[in-house]
Amino acid sequence: MKDLDQQQAVKATMTWLVDVVIGENLCPFAREPLESSKLEIVSCSEHELMAVLGQSLENINNSIYETALVVLNNDVDFKNFYELFCDIEFAFEQNELDQTFQLVAFHPDFVFEGLDQDDLANLVNRSPLPTIHILKRESFDNLNLTETSGEDISKANEERLKSKSPEQLKQLFPWQRF
Fold first, then answer.
1. DSSP 63
2. Using an 8 Å Cβ cutoff, are 126 and 110 in contact?
3. 56-88: pLDDT as tens digits
4. Which H or E element spans position 42?
5. Which is nearest to 49 in space by CA: 130, 122, 142, 111?
6. Residue 4 pLDDT > 80, yes or no?
7. Residue 173 neighbours by CB under 8 Å, 6+ apart
């Protein structure tokens, strides 16, 4: 996607969240925060990212929101985005914020390590725009997940997406080429 204004970026992300993440049950925990207005979706440029992340962390920490999607409204390639994401994760670790928050990266060209670019398993972390999902670990811990729950959900998502026809995939991921 080309650069979008903030409203367009939030709308594209909300459509993806509702149609793909919740509609396809890729994240069984996403519906509740959305329906209870505990999900913040905020859009910014790459230059504004650190300030916006800080505000979102404050909002989550003060229980205004339970989780946040911080969406970059400008076109950042996957390599540069993932380097930026890793730098942010490192800063979280250095400041012990990783004890309170968990980050997840989404990108239109997301590729899991060890997979080919066109492997459909990558769709699990593909979004219309570069996105950082902030979760409060406490909320995640309250879900009573087992050690393998994350892997089980990811594997089920991969199988679900791989079972879709090319036409279904085009409808779910219109920004992708199949």
1. T
2. yes
3. 999 999 999 999 999 998 889 999 999 999 999
4. strand 39-44
5. 130
6. no
7. 20, 123, 126
Q: Is 104 left (phi over 0), alpha (psi -120 to 50) or beta?
A: beta
Percent of the chain at pLDDT above 70? 96
Q: Where are the domains of the chain?
A: 6-172
By the 8 A CB rule, do 96 and 66 touch? no
Yes or no: say if 155 and 142 are a contact pair by the CB < 8 Å rule.
Answer: no
Q: Tell whether pTM > 0.90.
A: yes
Residue 140 scores a pLDDT above 90: no
Q: Is the pLDDT of residue 37 over 70?
A: yes
Q: How many CB atoms lie within 10 A of CB 124?
A: 21
71 alpha carbon, distance to own chain's centre = 9
β 67-72/39-44 pair status: parallel
Strands, sheet with 101-106, edge to edge from the N-terminal-most edge strand: 39-44, 67-72, 131-136, 101-106
Inter-residue contact 21 to 50 (CB < 8 Å): no
Q: What percent of the chain has pLDDT over 90?
A: 79
